[in-house]
Each structure stands twice: as structure tokens, then as C-alpha cells.
């Protein structure tokens, strides 16, 4: 199977799979471009209520596809285009997606994998998952916007240890730092992820999108436009009516 990004939709849930299992799902340049395309499409798909991001097989993502690096990394302009357009293009498309995004993390989650997970809203991992960004061993730093994203998600001290000492951390440590929402045994990861995405998909999609927009605006320190514009919306009315009638809301 060629490396790539696949998207499957079922019952309001879109599953985005990083497919490069022969290289532990390392991200090729084409995969970064495909990841952006996938999330741009998901953002405008009204039928999608939750997105699950996972790796094919037993690993989430081992980082970038290093075999491609000699072809572009030694030219400053080409390197800039890679990070600012391809990598950040995909990560910003994930961040701009108003649908809740959940990462299901097993095996290795390194470098690009940590960046992709950092762009998700919620993160579930197996107890055996490992996390790091040991790119200092390869002689280069993390790009500025990517470093800012990772540092905000994993915490400054963990980010410094990953980048300056090439430290690799267990899931328990990442949970203590607030990076992971839940940590479960490997055998329970799939069930736990599916349970959470189904729960999210059953909630108000309008509320989810508005909550993400609010959290994004607060993080950026910008004003929230029309924060009460949902007042007369059907989902608002249905949620209140269902609670009063003691029935399940139909969103």
C-alpha cells in the first residue's frame, strides 16, 4: 500500500488514518499535503460531528519520512516552503477545523506525530505509547510555529526536554503534564476511543463548533463575535425542550 492519508465516514464520525505502516506511519511530504486537504474538506462537511485521527497498524506516527530529507532540507528556501506551507498548512487546517478532533495514540508518537497530536482537541493513548521529538540527533531544530504548538500542548519543560535532551516520555508522564485526556491499556484503546467519539457525535454539533470557536478566540485574545447569536437556533430550542420533557434530544 502506498503511503497516504485516508478518510472514512460513518455515523457522523470521520476517521483520518495516517497510512505509512512500513515506516511506522512517518509523514511524507505528500501525506502532509493530503492531511491539509482532508481537514479543509472536513471543516465544511455538515454531516461530520467528530474526527478521529489514528495511525495504521500499531503505531501513531514516528515523525517525518527521513528518506526524503536530502532532497530538500539542505536548501533554505525549500526548507522554508516545507515547514511553512506543507507542514504548517496541514497543522493549521487541523487547528481551524471547528469539529472536535480526537487523537487515538498507540506505539510511537514522535516529532511530526507529537505535532499532529498537539493539533487535536482530545488525546487518548495506550499505556505503552511513547512520546518525543529527538530531532537534535538529526542536527536540526523544530520549526518555530511547530515548536510553539507543541510547547503549549505538552508544557514548556517537557518540550525543552524533548528538544534539548532528546528525551522520550511514557504515556503516564504525558498524562501528568495534561497532554493526554485518558490513558488506557492497549487492548482497551480502540473501545475507549470509539466510545468517546460516539458520545461526542451524539451531542449538539452546533455547541461543539461554537465551543471550539470560543476557545480559539480566547486563546488568541480576540473578541468573540455575536456570542449569543445561537439564541433562536433549532438545536438550542431542541436541547432545552428535550431536557424539560425528560427525553433524549434529537440533534
Automatic annotation (TrEMBL):
SUPFAM superfamilies: ClpP/crotonase. CDD domains: crotonase-like. GO terms for molecular function: catalytic activity. It comes from the Bacteria. Pfam families: ECH_1. PANTHER family: ENOYL-COA HYDRATASE, POLYKETIDE BIOSYNTHESIS ENOYL-COA HYDRATASE PKSH-RELATED. Belongs to the enoyl-CoA hydratase/isomerase family. This is Enoyl-CoA hydratase. It comes from Rhodoferax lacus.
Amino acid at each position: 500500500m502506498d503511503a497516504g492519508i485516508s478518510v472514512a465516514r460513518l455515523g457522523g464520525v470521520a476517521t483520518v488514518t495516517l497510512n505509512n505502516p512500513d515506516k511506522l506511519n512517518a509523514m511524507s511530504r505528500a501525506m502532509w499535503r493530503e492531511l491539509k486537504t482532508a481537514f479543509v474538506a472536513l471543516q465544511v462537511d455538515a454531516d461530520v460531528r467528530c474526527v478521529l485521527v489514528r495511525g495504521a497498524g500499531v503505531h501513531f506516527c514516528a515523525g517525518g519520512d527521513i528518506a526524503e530529507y536530502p532532497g530538500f532540507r539542505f536548501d533554505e528556501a525549500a526548507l522554508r516552503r516545507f515547514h511553512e506551507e506543507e507542514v504548517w498548512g496541514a497543522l493549521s487546517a487541523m487547528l481551524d477545523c471547528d469539529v472536535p478532533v480526537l487523537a487515538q495514540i498507540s506505539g510511537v508518537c514522535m516529532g511530526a506525530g507529537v505535532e499532529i497530536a498537539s493539533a487535536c482537541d482530545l488525546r487518548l493513548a495506550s499505556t505503552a505509547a511513547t512520546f518525543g521529538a529527538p530531532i537534535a540527533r538529526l542536527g536540526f531544530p523544530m520549526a518555530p510555529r511547530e515548536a510553539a504548538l507543541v510547547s503549549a500542548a505538552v508544557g514548556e519543560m517537557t518540550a525543552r526536554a524533548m528538544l534539548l535532551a532528546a528525551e522520550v516520555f511514557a504515556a503516564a508522564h504525558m498524562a501528568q503534564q495534561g497532554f493526554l485526556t485518558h490513558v488506557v491499556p492497549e487492548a482497551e484503546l480502540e473501545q475507549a476511543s470509539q466510545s468517546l467519539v460516539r458520545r461526542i457525535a451524539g451531542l449538539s454539533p452546533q455547541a461543539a463548533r461554537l465551543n471550539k470557536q470560543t476557545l480559539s478566540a480566547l486563546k488568541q485574545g480576540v473578541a468573540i463575535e455575536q456570542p449569543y447569536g445561537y439564541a433562536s437556533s433549532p438545536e438550542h430550542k431542541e436541547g432545552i425542550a428535550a431536557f424539560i420533557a425528560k427525553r433524549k434530544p434529537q440533534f
